[in-house]
Input
Amino acid sequence: MFYHLFLPLLDKEYFGYTIFNVFQYVTFRSIAAFITALIFSLFLGPKFIKLLKNHQAVETISDYLPDTHKAKQGTPTMGGLIVLSGLLLSSLLWNNLTNNYILIMFLTTIWLGGIGFLDDYLKNFRHLKLGLIAKYKLILQVALALFVAVILYYGKDQVAVSTINIPFLKSTVIQLKWVFVPFVIFMIVGTSNAVNLSDGLDGLATGLIIFSAFGLGLFAYLKGNYNIAEYLNLEFLKSAGELTVFIAALIGTLLGFLWFNTKPAEIFLGDTGSLSLGGILAVLSILLREELLFAIIGGIFVMEALSSIIQRYYFKYTKKKFGVGKRVFKCAPLHHHYEFKGIPEEKIVIRFWIIAILLVAIGLATLKLR
Output
């Protein structure tokens, strides 16, 4: 909003108007978006926690989880409402709202946030144990992914957008062509659910998303700046700069939420947050054409998803072959495996965060290999 409000004044050269030039700079608006989202989340947090408690929108702990989780029973969930509200408000204030990439991000945030909200609403307000039926949830996720894939593939830069950059190889890409559409569906649906699986310990998913978003945000800034992109041998994406502002708002609102989400958590993300935030990361990586880079910096999400898939199918295989189902992990996803090994929750979260920081550093190191 501010970008458009002060746009007519940007070219004024006389005293009193030149100060408004800062509103065209991505760096200034990114910092402003970060601060706005952080303050808004800190302000909104206590109000949402009180509201959700009053309406009994609280977490129900599965019997399969460690006994230490019983203390979490009754903690408010649906905290994604705080995150998404802070993100959208800040982005509306500081982004260029005519940017196509930003419009796609708004659609992704609202659509997937709506799916997660519906799931949480059915579980917490209608008391349906399974929430939104998995089949319907998947259909809605695929619908969004298909729409995003089609509008990108049939857009102006069809050839460029359907390529995947190879992080460790200079000027090397994979041209997906029509495979781009199912690939985007896989990316959005897979990442959305992978982040959802990671939301099992206080602050774990929130911190991991922040680190992944930081890595993508840096690439958005670099690719959105012609001079820097040319120097680093990166493709210049004119619209990518605005994603930096959006990602700054995302990091700000997540840090504000983390204030209430660290152990002992006062509120959880819920599906409202985890499903939408996973999809947001996936779409960001697709728009930046850095899907393989995201697989590196978001490696924890990959491991969490793989641990659940391996556990499920190995159990089915051994049960069919031997009559008794066996497990690879003590519990899946992976963070629960370490809980059952007796490692304290705080230590698991911090160690996963450290690994995530390492993966982001490895991802950024690929800049010098291009």
The radius of gyration is 21 Å. The first helix runs from residue 2 to 5. The chain has one domain: 26-369. The longest strand covers residues 163-165.
